[in-house]
């Protein structure tokens, strides 16, 4: 039977979640923190105690939205926070375990929601309607500024949109567990006496080697078969997009490791970041460095870093 303190904390959790979800002017910032109330509750009281605010939030989501997709999205955020809280309570886990656990839940949940949206709401057709409407609006705006040439046919963008949209959604989800871990950790250290669990220094980040092999298999498959008319290859195409970004981050990590090994200050990473995002050739070099770092033992050959 739940204790009074668990019920009280449950109402506080639901209330904090609603505040973060309903602050419309600041939603672009608070949406990243929506798993936080369940993260804090579960880390303090355990997953059984978190079931009460979980189901109460599901009921309120149905009342407010009336849509299964809306309820599913709310529950995904709640489960993400609960999984991170469960992992943080364990004595043998690290900050990396907590962040990866949250990220795994987010990615799997988003994949299920996207599949459900495509099957139940004909998401592809709705995106075509939105794209067509925005295309016509942009053409009208250009005419007002004296540009008479028509824009390209929006139908030509369908393939590109379907190829990159899921990848972009997955990439946007990456900061969610990282931000919630950083914010929630402060509260748990100060208020609950939990030990601090941190991610390793950026220069020591390493992608597992299977990512290296999967990247090249996916890239080769996309190059051979293309993206048109094959949903399985489209999935691989999105995987290639996500992995490209991950290997770019890996390349930046390797660059930071080299700078640290050469006794260069962290300030050198600022021009590296600027050049990476502004100069395409630098972007490709950093990307290739990330592939090399993940797929080989190049750090061992350079010797142990500091």
From TrEMBL:
The keyword Transmembrane applies. The chain crosses the membrane at residues 12-34, 100-121, 160-183, 211-227, 233-258, 270-292. The keyword Plastid does not apply. It comes from the Bacteria. Keywords: Membrane, Transmembrane, Transmembrane helix. InterPro entries: DUF2232. This is Uncharacterized protein YybS (DUF2232 family). The lineage of its organism: Bacteria, Bacillati, Bacillota, Bacilli, Bacillales.
